[in-house]
Design goal:
By secondary structure, the chain is of the alpha+beta class. The chain contains nine helices and 20 strands. A hairpin with a 2-residue loop joins strand 14 and strand 15. The relative contact order is 0.09. Bound molecules: oxidized coenzyme A (CAO). The site of oxidized coenzyme A has 18 residues, from helix 7, strand 14 and strand 17.
Length: 449
Amino acid sequence: MALIDIKVPDIGDFDEVTVIEILVKPGDTVKADQSLLTVESDKASMEIPSSHGGVVKELRVKLDDKVKQGSVVLVLEAEADVSAAPAPSAASPAQPPPVAQAAAVAAPVAVASAAAATVPPALEVPAHEPTAVSGQLPHASPSVRKSAREIGVPLAEVKGSGPKGRITLDDVQSFAKSVMAGDVRTQAQTAKVPAGSGGSGGDGAALGLLPWPKVDFAKFGPIERKEMSRIKKISGANLLRNAIMIPAVTNHDDADITDLEAFRVSTNKENEKSGVKVTMLAFLIKACVATLKKYPEFNSSLDGDAIVYKNYWHIGFAADTPNGLMVPVIRDADQKGVLQLSQEMGELAKKARDGKLSSAEMSGATFTISSLGGIGGKYFLPIINAPEVAIMGVSKSTMEPVWDGKQFVPRLMLPMSLTWDHRVIDGAAAARFNAYLGQILGDFRRVLL
Ligand code: CAO
C-alpha cells in the first residue's frame, strides 16, 4: 500500500481558492473520483476529486485555508497499484467526479470563467448567487446540490446558514426534517396539495415519491369522467395530510354489548312515541366521553412541543352523505344524556346529508367516532382527524360464542378500532383505553363512577 499526496489539480485561471467544505475525514475510505473538498474563488465554487481510491490517512487543509494548483490537500493510502492512475497535477486534471455530472443536470449555470478552467465546467456553480427570492440559483456547493436533489429538497427555498448565506448539508437536512414534521410546506406542496390534489396523490416529488401513474384508461375500455365534489376534494386533501403526517397506530378490541343492546331496544320501545330513536352510537359517545375523562391524553392536541389538554368534550361523528364524508360535532357531549345525544345526532346527520351544516357545526371536535355499524364489516383503520390525536372506529356487532370460564355463551360483540397518534399516546395507554371503554359498554352503570 502506497501513501500518495492528493493535490489540487489545474483550477483554471484562479490563483488561489478558499477551502469552504471538507467532505472527508481521516479513516474514511474514498473511491477514485469521489469529491474530497469544496473550494471557492470569488466567482465560483468547485469540488476537488480524489484521483485514487483508498483510505484517508491525513488531512493537510482546514476550513478557510487558501490553496492553489499543486497544494497537497490530504495523504491517501492507495488501495491499488498507484502507477495505474497518475496523481493529479496541473498536467493531468482529475476526471469529472460522478457528483459533478449529476450536479450539471440541476445546476447548468456555470460562470463565464468555467470555459477557461481545466476542472470540468460542470463542477462549477456561481459562488455568490442571490437566493431564491430573486428567482436565481441559490448558493450551495455541488455536493449539497446533489444531496438536495436526492432527498427532493427545493434548494431555492432553503435558507443558508454558511458564510455569505451559503447553504450547507445541515441546512438541507434540517429543511427536509421540517417538511416531514409538517412545520414547513414547500412551495410545490402549497401549490399542489390543497383541495383537488387528493386523488392524484398530491406532490409526491417533495417526499421523494414516484410520480402518480398516468394511464389512458380509455385505451382499455369505455370510461366516464366526473369532477369530484367540493367536499370530497377538501376531505381528500385533509385525509392525505393526516395519513402521511401522523405516526398512527390502530388497536383493535371487542366490547360485549349484549346487555346494552337489550337496554337500547327497550328504551326505544318506551320512547316510541317521542320520535327519537337511540342507536348504539349515542351510547358509544357517552362511553367514550367517560373514557376520555379517565385518559385525558386522548382528548388533547399537539402544539409544537406542547400537548394541549382540553377540558371540554366535543365529539365529532363521521356521517356518510351523498356528497361525501362529513364530520358534524356534538358540543359538550359530557353534559348531555343519551336521548339528547341521539336527537342532536339525528338533526346534525340530516343537515349533513342536506348539505346544510355550518362550519361551526363541524369544528372544535376533541375526539371523533366513525361508525360503520349500520352497514357491516369487521374492523377498519380510521384516519385521525387532525389536530385530534385519536379516533374510534366501530363496525357491525355480531353474535359470537364467548367462553365464560365454563362454557361458550352467545354474546353480542362490537368490533372497535382505535387509531392514535404515537407522538402523544403509547400503545399501553391505547390498550387500556379500549379495555376501559369495553368495560363501560359491558356494564353501562360504570359511566356513573
Ligand atoms: N352494530 C350493529 N348494528 C348497528 C350498529 C352496530 N355497531 N350501529 C348501528 N346499527 C344499526 C342501527 O341500530 C340501525 O338498525 P335499526 O334501523 O334496525 O335500528 C341501523 O344499523 C342503521 O343505523 P344508522 O346508521 O342509521 O345510525 P347510527 O346512529 O348507527 O349512525 C350515522 C348514524 C350518521 C353515523 C350513519 O348514518 C353514518 O353515516 N354512518 C357512516 C359513517 C362513515 O361513513 N364512516 C366511515 C368514515 S371513513 O370513510
